[in-house]
From TrEMBL:
The lineage of its organism: Bacteria, Pseudomonadati, Pseudomonadota, Betaproteobacteria, Burkholderiales. This is Anti-sigma factor. It comes from the Bacteria. It comes from Ideonella azotifigens. Keywords: Membrane, Transmembrane, Transmembrane helix. The chain crosses the membrane at residues 75-97. The keyword Transmembrane helix applies.
Length: 247
């Protein structure tokens, strides 16, 4: 059917109204900085959404999962612009962003440079932790439903390394648990992922003045990143391994 030039399509008035509303919002809407709880909630969901993206060779996703993968940009823009959005988790069905169980954690090798970059970003821009507590019984349950594995959260306060909190970061497309410990005024970030490799003694590298110590124990691969002295970081790793070793 040939469109009638005297009767524009029905969706044109809606488009015009939307454009006018957008212009009014840009001119008159007040802007507020998003609070830390909202930022933390959105960044957690972004990490989970990033980690749920499949590799290029994976089968095509269903319509729902494509929608979940594509929500990231609009959610961040809305939170940054108006800072009045509800936590993104409330907009999705329960469990929609949980990671599928798979054995992909061994495929990606984390390089010291990217671990240091992640650590520095958390120190400078935050969040350093999305759950803040020195109690392992508060931090460990926080990961339930957010990861498909349970990271160890040892209490090392008696050894001089009190727990500060935890967060989730997306590294190589995988949601990764990060635990923040303190050593006086220094922060030690521990990145934890499952590993099927046998236990291994710590291996130390230095990147841009930061020490990166990696080890495997209790079915987990751990990377500790900090600017503390190398000897202190090795003490930390020894204490972690002693408290986290499985049977």
């Amino acid at each position: 059917m040939t469109p009638d030039p005297h009767h524009p399509p029905e969706d044109e008035p809606d488009a015009k109204q939307n454009a006018e509303l957008s212009a009014l919002l840009r001119r008159h809407a007040s802007r507020h900085t998003a609070g830390n709880p909202l930022r933390a909630a959105i960044q957690t969901q972004v990490a989970l959404a990033d980690a749920s993206r499949p590799p290029r060779h994976a089968p095509r996703l269903s319509g729902l999962r494509r929608w979940v993968s594509g929500w990231r940009g609009p959610a961040i823009g809305f939170a940054a612009g108006l800072a009045c959005a509800l936590p993104v988790a409330m907009l999705l069905p329960a469990g929609a962003l949980r990671l599928p169980a798979n054995g992909g954690f061994q495929a990606a090798v984390l390089h010291p440079a990217e671990l240091v970059a992640s650590h520095v970003h958390a120190l400078s821009a935050g969040p350093l932790y999305q759950v803040a507590s020195s109690d392992r019984h508060t931090v460990k349950p926080w990961y339930q439903g957010k990861l498909d594995y349970a990271p160890p959260v040892p209490d090392l306060s008696a050894q001089g390394f009190p727990l500060a909190g935890g967060r989730i970061e997306a590294l190589h497309g995988e949601a990764t648990a990060v635990l923040a410990y303190m050593r006086r005024l220094h922060v030690i970030d521990v990145y934890v992922r499952p590993s099927t490799e046998p236990a291994a003694a710590p291996s130390l590298q230095t990147e841009r003045g930061f020490h990166v110590l990696t080890w495997r124990v209790g079915g987990m691969q751990c990377w500790a990143v900090s600017d503390v002295e190398a000897g202190e970081l090795q003490q930390f790793a020894a204490a972690w391994r002693a408290r986290s070793a499985g049977p």
